[in-house]
Sequence to fold (310 residues):
Amino acid sequence: MRAGVIGLGIMGGAIAERLLATGYEVVVYNRTREKAEPLIAQGARWADSPAEVARQCEVVISIVTDPAAVEQVSFGDRGILSALSAESVHCDMSTVSPAWSRYMAQTYRQAGKRFVQAPVLGGRKQILEGTLLVFGGGEEDDLNRCEPVWRAFSDKVWRFPTADRATTTKLACNMMIAHMMVGLGQSMLFAAKGGVSPATLLDILSKSNLGAPMYTTKGNAVLERNFQANFFVRHLLKDLSLAEDAARETSTMLPLNALTRELFVAAMQQGFADEDYSAVVKVMERLAGIELRKDLYGGQRDGRPYRTHL
Ligand code: NAP
Fold:
């Protein structure tokens, strides 16, 4: 089968790479062509527009920044909708709002075209390992058409009857990511200010019921001062904002979002937009007047921590 990938950023680039590695014929398009070059070298075929991808593929994946970017690649003369055949399906995997995904589903339905909203949880690593989580929302028949392609990079697919429920699920997960990161930063700073090595705290968390793999990976990345982006600060702030818009529609309180979102706004203002979302901890470090590092405390002496810094 031939699959198309539109948007070759962190996620789309990895999806195209994995589809190629698992034997798919892959047609790619990206607004900035240079990002396609490594994939073309691996055997992907370049298309000059989203419409050209749609013309050639049975399943057309888009994974771009936000609703405005999805609009750009979907509509207009050179967009996906105009060229998609009645048998092909556009599967948008971007993180968007429930309202936007409802609009997409309705617009495609009215045009007699197939659309599935399928946001994902996990990053480049999970895509390349084939363990990404997919939340597919749409008509049963359309989900069936997409599922074989998802299975190239996912071993966990959840199905929802509508596009907006898939998106709601994704935003619920991403709020957790933001809150967990801020909670971890808070506890590491609290521990460090009290003379406890943040590395010791991570070790304890990993061995307890509180242990989430994310605490280990992101906690260690903070201690190693590695903020190279797997998922940009600016994208997680976008998702917190989308969640707030959606919560207004359903009159849902999001009390934790109020503070968390402000910290991500501060991370943007302090120049961390293109760093990994774990860089929000740098904002908290500045407020606390301390920088978290692996060697912050030398370890234990007679069962008690001792200070090597501060
Ligand atoms: P990224 O690296 O910033 O890539 C964004 C992509 O969108 C690029 O291909 C970019 O094209 C394209 N784009 C942006 N604005 C556009 C426009 N107006 N018209 C056409 N194309 C446009 O982001 P990413 O991390 O791959 O994330 C993509 C989506 O997946 C986002 O919705 C994000 O929230 C979601 N997501 C990300 C992760 C993650 O771990 N990274 C995980 C789950 C979900 P250019 O190359 O030309 O800029």
In short: The chain has two domains: 2-161, 168-299. The longest helix spans residues 163-193.
